[in-house]
Every structure is written in structure tokens, then in C-alpha cells.
Amino acid sequence: MTAETIVEIKQVSKWFGAFRVLDDINLTVMKGERIVVCGPSGSGKSTLIRCVNRLEAHQKGDIVVNGISLHNKMRQISEVRRNVGMVFQNFNLFPHMTVLMNCMAAPMWIKGVAREEAKRLAMQFLEKVRIPEQADKYPVQLSGGQQQRVAIARSLCMQPTVMLFDEPTSALDPEMVSEVLETITTLAREGMTMICVTHEMGFARAVADRVIFMDAGRIVEEGAPNEFFTNPRHDRTKLFLSQILRH
After folding, report:
1. 45-96, pLDDT tens digit by residue?
2. CB 204, CB 34: distance < 8 Å
3. What is the pLDDT averaged over residues 88-105?
4. Sequential DSSP letters for 30-48
5. pLDDT in tens, 117-174
6. Is the pLDDT of residue 1 over 80?
7. CB-based contacts of 17: which residues, under 8 Å, 6+ apart?
8. How confident is the model at residue 78, as a pLDDT?
9. Model confidence pTM above 0.90
10. Alpha carbon distance 151, 156 (integer Å)
11. Which residues have C-beta within 8 Å of that of residue 32, sequence separation ≥ 6?
12. 94: number of CA atoms within 13 Å, CB side?
């Protein structure tokens, strides 16, 4: 890895029983790069990014994140996760904690940040996602879009070097999608390294440096957004785009 490489995935494969969910994946993500991963359901997109912060273990190949190699005997999983933010489809907020405490918990418990500093960080990032006024509420009192923005703020409080987004708008009502995408777009334009699994092709066109199309556990095609959307090379990519861009 070079000094500017954040994630390097080399010849990675993964099986669930006899099913090969990832098949010889190769991908390098540079500092500040915005990668959008798209593809049909079951193509391996979410599994791929879950391998990047070791929520899933790969069985073959190499994954290196911030210079740390992920393997079965590694002891640095917590170190990797300290530097890799993850935003899930379904928010995964602690329901018994206020918004503020949801954001303060990980810096205090994992990084040992003092309470007042954790609170300062939490309010800083709640302001960044434009919901500081919700700090004292509980997740159940918020809309889905607000909960997802809290989840983004919570990840940012760990000050990660890379953010992973696993279909962050798929559980939202349509009118709430834009507020979450605006938040992610702001982070992208500020230079955050990110890998985002999404079906939001307008977002991919506007934000991505590269679009990765996966099918059946493999990377079928990748390219800059203009090239990917206007001149896809593979028939499988053309079929996918013709279906998803109709909606």
C-alpha cells in the first residue's frame, strides 16, 4: 500500500456454505476517493463492505485497511473499527439512549475520550448533519431521516479515515431520502473517503469518483460516472441500468 491508499482488496473471495458470495474481488480505494457500489440484490455489495471493517470474514485473498491486514488471527480488529465508520440500512441506534449519548458513547467507551470532549464532538457533528436541536430526544421521537443523520453523526464522532454506507436510504420513506443524501454529499465534498452501497444513481452521478457494478459476487464493470452511465461496456451493466433508471 502507498501512503495515500486507504483500502486495498486483493483477490478476495468469501463463501456462505457452498455459495460463493464474493468471487476474486480486486479494489483499491485512495484517500479522499468516493466509491459507489451498485448491483442487483444478492450481488455481494453489502458483504464486500462488511468485510472492510471485519463484520464479515473473508476466506481467501487480502484486505488491508489503513495499513492493517485483516486476517483470521488478527488482534487489531478494534483498531480497524476505530478508524472505519459504518452506517447501516436500519440506523442501529441505541433506543434507550438520547441522541447525544448515542453519539458520545463510542468515543468514551472505545477511545477513552473524556465526557466533556465527547459531548463537544457530539454537538459538533450533530450540527454538521443539521439536527443539533434533537440532541436530548430519543431515537423513537425522530423521523427515519433524522435517525439516519444521527447514525452518520455517531460514526463521525469516532473521526474515521473512511466511511462505509450500506444502502443508507433503503429503509427511508421517499421524502426523507434527499435529506440523508444531502448529508452524505456534504461529507463527500469535504474530502471524506467513502464506499457507498446504494441504488441512488443520481447520487452516484453527482458524487462518485468511481462507480463499481457487481453481479454474482464479482466486479463486472467500474468507471467514472460519466463513462459508466453513458457508455457501459458490459451487457449485464446495460441491463441493470436500463431497469434501474426507468424507476
Report:
1. 999 999 999 999 999 999 999 988 888 766 777 788 888 999 998 888 999 9
2. no
3. 94
4. ETT-EEEEE-STTSSHHHH
5. 999 999 999 999 999 999 999 999 999 999 999 999 999 999 999 999 999 998 888 8
6. no
7. none
8. 79
9. yes
10. 9
11. 191, 192, 193
12. 12
CA-CA distances (angstroms) from residue 100 to 15, 16, 113, 152, 183?
A: 39, 38, 15, 13, 18
Parallel, antiparallel, or unpaired: how do β-strands 193-197 and 34-38 relate?
Answer: parallel
Nearest of 6, 1, 3, 2 to residue 195 by alpha carbon: 6
Question: Can you give the pLDDT at residue 247?
Answer: 54
pLDDT reading at 2 higher than 60: no
Rg (CA), the chain: 18
Contact 53/83 with Cβ under 8 angstroms? no
- Residue positions counted in the chain: 247
pLDDT at 3 over 70: no
- The DSSP line for the chain is --TTEEEEEEEEEEEETTEEEEEEEEEEEETT-EEEEE-STTSSHHHHHHHHTTSS--SEEEEEETTEEE-TT-S-HHHHHHSEEEE-TT----TTS-HHHHHHHHHHHTT---HHHHHHHHHHHHHHTT-GGGTTS-GGGS-HHHHHHHHHHHHHTT--SEEEEESTTTTS-HHHHHHHHHHHHHHHHTT-EEEEE-S-HHHHHHH-SEEEEEETTEEEEEE-HHHHHHS--SHHHHHHHHHHTT-
C-alpha cell at position 181: 443524501
User: What count of other Cβ atoms lies within 10 Å of the Cβ of residue 66?
Assistant: 17
Q: Which amino acid is at 226?
A: N
